[in-house]
Amino acid sequence: MKKLFYVMFVTTLFLASCAPKPTDQVVIRGDIDGLDNETIYLQHRAGRKLVDLDTAQIKDGKFILKGKITEPQLAYLSIKNEDNFADYEIFIEPGEIKISGHVSDPDFKVTGSRPHADMKQLEKELEPYGERFQELYEAYMTAMQTQNEPLLKEIETELEVIDAEEKEIKGAFVKNHPDSYYSLYLIRSNLVYEATLQELELYYSWLNPSILNSSLGAFISNRIETLKKVDIGQTAPEISLPDTAGVIKKLSSLRGKYVLVDFWASWCRPCRAENPNVVAAYKVFHDKGFDILGISLDDDQAKWKEAIYHDNLTWEHVIDNGWNGESVNMYGVISIPSNFLLDPDGKIVASNLRGEELHKTLAELLGLTL
Question: pLDDT of 27-67, one tens digit each?
């Protein structure tokens, strides 16, 4: 169900070379039948925005695009106001890249970019899973409308199987392509959202040192170190943030109880969908020694407070500085909802507990029978 419910934080998509030079240049020579006199754009991501690297006028299907880049990266070819050739993904790296084909068939032939070839190879391997996922997603939406609970659970189970199989294929790709920048990109853009600390360390160990000396190599390394600090058995980092009244609240003030550190936001639909389950757990276990500290990533305090009231979240709440918040960075949160369960001494005993798993874990820790 991760594909249905994760709110993923979209970050930079750049890949770095081991010895970047400010004069590195990519040249894309295109020959696309069916195009003439249109303006084509070569764009890449700068943070959350798409920025033009170059533009060119297409003449008889031919064009040349250039750009200075210091890192291999995912880029996009697009023609404004044209549906049949918009935002075609292309992995670029310094050097000359050739692209050819017909505009009616946007699966263009691309040569001169190894990361691009690797990307297309994995896409082909995953294609059957994507088709099956789309079928199941549509069936799931229909089952939701009819409130067919048995069918919903059946579909959820199959979706989880698909997720697991896709993850295994992606992991195998990384292992079999240890010197590919696309392996770095795959970990950063996809696997990192589902990987445990142990899995991430394994992926990292497979990679060739020549590509680890890069921005994404550094990101993965830093990610591993962060996860080590919030792994099971570690003392949870202190959190000190303002509550709904603007008063600073410390996580350590809740010592002596089992505490769920719950990262969420009013705009996060999966978070709001999970809130009734958390409310139910709070009602059952609060008097038995369980508490919650809600940490919001909202930037609109009015909507944050409205969501607290609307969802009947009667525990302590504090607010951080969105995805740039100190607590978000300390706990390595890259998607929400995300949570950590602490024991009375402040040590982490579990993470990302949802649904019945939250209730079962609390009952076991508190020595209760559901």
Answer: 999 999 988 888 999 998 877 788 899 999 999 999 999 99
Measured CA to CA in angstroms, residue 74 lies from 12, 14, 79, 214, 298 at distances of 10, 7, 17, 15, 29
- In the chain, which segments carry CATH 3.40.30.10? 240-365
Mean pLDDT over the full length of the chain: 89
**Distance, CA of 81 to CA of 225 (rounded, Å):** 45
CATH topology of domain 240-365: Glutaredoxin (3.40.30)
Give the C-alpha separation, 336 to 296, whole Å: 10
Chain Cα centroid distance, residue 91:
19
Confidence (pTM): 0.79
Q: How many CA atoms lie within 13 A of 347 on its CB side?
A: 5
Domain 25-112, what fold?
Immunoglobulin-like (2.60.40)
Q: Are 185 and 93 in contact (CB under 8 A)?
A: no
Neighbour tally for 24: CB within 10 Å: 17
Interior CA angle at 15 toward 11 and 21, to 5°? 130
Angle between helices 114-146 and 181-189 (to 10 degrees): 20
The whole-angstrom separation of Cα 56 and Cα 62 is: 10
Residue ranges of the chain with pLDDT lower than 70?
1-23, 81-86, 370
What are the strands of the beta sheet with 338-342, ordered from one edge?
A: 316-319, 290-296, 258-264, 338-342, 348-351
Question: Is 99 within 8 Å of 108 (Cβ atoms)?
Answer: yes
As a whole number of angstroms, the distance between CA 274 and CA 292 comes to 14
| Token pair in block for residue 220 | 């993965």
Query: Residue 130 CB: number of other CB atoms within 10 A?
Result: 12
- Comma-separated ranges of CATH 2.60.40 domains in the chain: 25-112
